[in-house]
Design a protein that fits this description.
about 130 residues; alpha+beta; five-stranded antiparallel beta sheet; binds guanosine-5'-monophosphate; binds zinc ion
Length: about 130
């Protein structure tokens, strides 16, 4: 898609450090890594979010994702976070679907989540939404 930086990476119009590529997917290093080896997996075709990938294409993409995960485990570490930011409020900045792979080495302080105990009322409210 015109103006999409990840499409430009796919088309090799801008430089990236590619660690894996096949017909449907590509994995390259994030330009602002959270940890050493932080990489992004993308479908080569432009979709804004993962849920827009057609089922048959998703099957092929998933096979590539699996290969890349195995590569990461073999070459870097078996400890990593898989992160998808879907939508602006979730922190998505590049609207070409991508999966972050963030290797963990033990010392880094990431994702300081503030949680609360799930209440009965809250749980029922969400369940009602899914059942309606
Ligand atoms: P998002 O917040 O959309 O999930 O993450 C987008 C990611 O893409 C960010 O982590 C950002 O550092 C990375 N990024 C943005 N522009 C480029 C680029 O031109 N090249 C590479 N390799 N990564 C990029
Ligand atoms: Zn794109």
């Amino acid at each position: 898609m015109d103006g999409c930086i990840f499409c430009k990476i796919v088309n090799k119009e801008i430089k990236s450090y590619i660690i894996y590529e096949d017909n449907v997917a590509m994995a390259f290093l994030d330009i602002n890594p959270l940890t050493k080896g932080h990489l992004l997996i993308i479908p080569k075709k432009h979709y804004e979010r993962l849920s827009q990938i057609p089922e048959e294409e998703m099957k092929e993409f998933s096979k590539s994702v699996l290969k890349i995960l195995k590569l990461v485990e073999e070459k870097l570490t078996k400890d990593y976070n898989i992160l998808v930011n879907n939508g602006k409020k979730a922190g998505q900045e590049i609207f070409h679907a991508h999966i972050h792979i963030i290797p963990r080495y033990g010392e880094e302080k990431l994702f300081n989540w503030t949680t609360h105990k799930l209440t009965e009322e809250e749980a029922n409210e969400i369940l009602r939404k899914f059942k309606s």
